[in-house]
Request: fold
Amino acid sequence: MNCRNHSGNYSDSTHELILLLFTVPTFFIGSTLNGAALCMICCHIKRRTKPLIYVVSLVISDILLLFILPFKVYAFHVKEDWKMEKTFCQFLESLSFVNTYTSILVITLICVDRYVAVVYPFNARANSSPRAIAGICAVIWIVVCLCTIQVYDKSQSGSCFYHLSPEVLDLSFVAPLEALFLLCALTMLFCALRIILTLKDRTSETEDKCTDKCIKILLSNLFTLLICFTPYHTFLLLYTLTVNGFLSAHYCELLRGATHYTLYLANVNSCLDAIYYFYAFKELRRTKQNPDKKIQMDVYDTSLGSTSIQRNSHAH
Reply:
């Protein structure tokens, strides 16, 4: 059996059930929460800050993902009878790639920014600004979109979403993506641990409750990132190795299905992002209403795997 030419079994009722269980709730919950976050940004947040830039980047990324989810359900049911333009299918597949890697890179940027702010607060004030963060986010979007052109150009599969082209699954393309994800995950883990240790060392008895809350949020978000994206990258690598002949082709259908299932899990990040947006908005509104608060949690840039914690002490 040649994995490159294997057509797969679309009659698998288990696949359809998993697709619907993940995709339908993700679409409706994610659309509601991200739509509300967008309204908050447009109607209630007037000042351009670093948290706002991060949230806008992730909301746009999540909206692009949510846009394609109904088409994924449609593609599963029509199978090879995709009635729309082939170029539109390629465009939709590309958006899924954009969401995955803009989310990972922006989240990593948030974690690194918070690491600098907590561990090296004076350097953060001197070297970090909303304009610089906006520039870095813009570079992330440009680089990811340029890489996405390869997905768009090389996708020649017969069925939208469910038969990735062997050209897209080339090791020369997938291996750098796997290395990028591993680097981001390790960076976030290191930054999270340093932030937690630093906050524990600096915390006074009166701040114990607040710090414990921050640490729990940080750990839960990091855990969410690893749960959402690690399974997908693991099975994507295994499936790519199978397609390229490094593993037995007998595993092809099993790994292809696992890659799709874990991608549905990765899509859940569009819901989890939004939950933490509102927590960030709540904290920003609280600090706005209490500008003279001695020690405040100025920023909660939280999404998937990182929480932004910046404590500002104002001398009176």
